[in-house]
Structures are given as structure tokens and as C-alpha cells.
Design brief:
The strands form 2 sheets. This protein has a 5-stranded mixed beta sheet, with no helix packed on it. Strands 1-3-7-5 form a 4-stranded antiparallel beta sheet, with no helix packed on it. It is of the alpha+beta class.
């Protein structure tokens, strides 16, 4: 079977498109659910929590802001209002949730919203892509606790680089180069 020059170009364009889409998929941002996930507090109580912003496969530093909505009358405060996450890192964000003494006893379901954009220095202009992620955050205000659980909040760690997406991209590039070489050799 002999391929025409236009067929080779179409095939190469399709492979290039797939490659570009896979690179975009590999460069992603993630946010974990707040930890502890099952947060139970008494009236007048306060507890610490944290969540992770994961920029493991990002190619640039990310400037991220975050907020929690839907938990009124509970009071949420963060240690920092905004954070810069380096490419390839995971950043722990710490906060405190406080329950007023007169808060109704119930489960409060809110949303943790994290908005990130590539970090741009002063004097640089252009458009940037904002990424917004929303994860659920639940706080249960209870009458009494059966057991008081104290969890240690871990310190930040640098993650191991996930090689699977990078390996897939390298294999795709090698296949495209081999295919182009093979098709040109057939001519």
C-alpha cells in the first residue's frame, strides 16, 4: 500500500494533534479534599485542617488563591491568603475552622474553591489561563463527641515526579519520528 504525500501530511497532522492534546493533559493541577475529611466539632470548638494544591505536572509556577463558601455561621481562616506553588511541587495550605457557641447542630456542606494562574512577574503582560477547582468541604457540628481524635498535620514534602505521562509523551514522539522516517524512506 502506497501513501500519497497529502495522506502522509494528514496522518502527521493527526499524530501531532494527539501529541499536543496529551501534553495538555499531562500538565494539570490538582486539589485534594480538606483533611481531615470527616471533621466533627462541638459548639465553641475550633480545629485545624489542610489541603494540598498539586502542581506536579505543571510547567510553570502557579499563583493560587482559595476560599470556602457555604459554611455560615462557621468561621474559616487560612494561614495565608494566597500562595505560589512551584512547578512540580505540592503545597499544603493550612486553615482553622471555628464553630460559634450558638451554631445549630448539623452538617455544614460547603465548597473549597481554588483558583490558580501562572505566576507572572512585574512588567510582563499577556493573557494567562486561570484554572478553578472546586471540592466539597463538610464540617459536622455535633452535640457530643464519642472520641476526641487528634491528628498530626504533616509538613510539606516534595513529591516524586510521576513518570508515566512523560514516558507516554516520549514514546509518542519516537513513534512520530520513526513513522515520518519510514514514510520518507518508502518514497
Amino acid at each position: 500500500m502506497k501513501m500519497k504525500n497529502s495522506d502522509v501530511r494528514k496522518f502527521g497532522f493527526i499524530l501531532l494533534s494527539v501529541l499536543l492534546m496529551s501534553i495538555q493533559t499531562a500538565m494539570s493541577l490538582g486539589v485534594t479534599q480538606p483533611i481531615p475529611i470527616d471533621l466533627k466539632l462541638l459548639r465553641g470548638d475550633a480545629a485545624r485542617f489542610y489541603f494540598e494544591i498539586q502542581a506536579v505536572m505543571e510547567s510553570s509556577r502557579q499563583s493560587c488563591s482559595y476560599s470556602i463558601s457555604g459554611l455560615d455561621p462557621l468561621v474559616i481562616s487560612f494561614d495565608k491568603k494566597e500562595v505560589v506553588v512551584n512547578a512540580g511541587d505540592i503545597k499544603n495550605i493550612y486553615g482553622t475552622v471555628s464553630v460559634p457557641i450558638d451554631a445549630p447542630i448539623k452538617a455544614y456542606n460547603g465548597d473549597l474553591t481554588v483558583s490558580c494562574r501562572p505566576f507572572v512577574g512585574e512588567g510582563v503582560s499577556g493573557s494567562v489561563i486561570h484554572k478553578t477547582l472546586v471540592v466539597p468541604f463538610t464540617v459536622n457540628v455535633v452535640e457530643k463527641l464519642e472520641e476526641r481524635v487528634v491528628r498530626e498535620i504533616p509538613e510539606e514534602q516534595k513529591p516524586a515526579i510521576h513518570l508515566l505521562p512523560m514516558l507516554a509523551i516520549i514514546i509518542l514522539v519516537i513513534l512520530v519520528i520513526y513513522l515520518v522516517y519510514w514514510l520518507n524512506k518508502k518514497k
